[in-house]
Amino acid sequence: MTPEIAMKVIGYTSSSKLWTAVEESFVILNKSRVIFLIGELQRTREGSMSMDHYLTTIKQLADNLEIAGKIIDQSDLITQVLSSLDEEYTPIVVQINSRENISRYELSSVLMTFESRLERLNQVKNSFTSLSFNQSSILLAHRTNSVTGRGLRGIKSGRSPSFRGRTRSRDRALTGRQNETKGACQICGPHNHSASWCFNRYDER
What we know:
With 205 residues, the chain is mainly α. The protein has a domain at 3-102. Helices cover 70% and strands 0% of the residues. α2 (15-43) packs antiparallel against α3 (51-67). The protein is rod-shaped.
């Protein structure tokens, strides 16, 4: 008898009463443990755990309940396992529920196989997403460099495209005027201006 138990049965005058007290004490402790373990079993979800870790945790709780005197029916245990899986396992859960009988070992095999398939699909999806992102980044960088290059060409020339256009228009106008001034003046005769620019065009002759 451990010291903890001995402290609970001090004062009993007969072995019969002492034994009955010990039994009642264990029954109370056992009920409390069963309630705790059932709560842990119901709260356990697959979540971020691997399937192997999840199934091992469920089995340990079921074994501890059996030691405490509470045996969980296999069908109830399977129902608990399936109901605590994440949404991505819905297809395989529906398939398992459609079967009449499945052992705990067969259930473990099916779920772990499905988990491996999900991992492969996620790897392919992540690789495709990464490739698409890299291609988009390269295309964006190419477009940015093209726009920047056009802007730099304008900066290197010292004038923006619109300014260069205005300059060319002004140059053409000046050239036209210069061409217009070339030739003989019909009023005074010199060849350095036209009649429209002659200072003598209003003089009376």
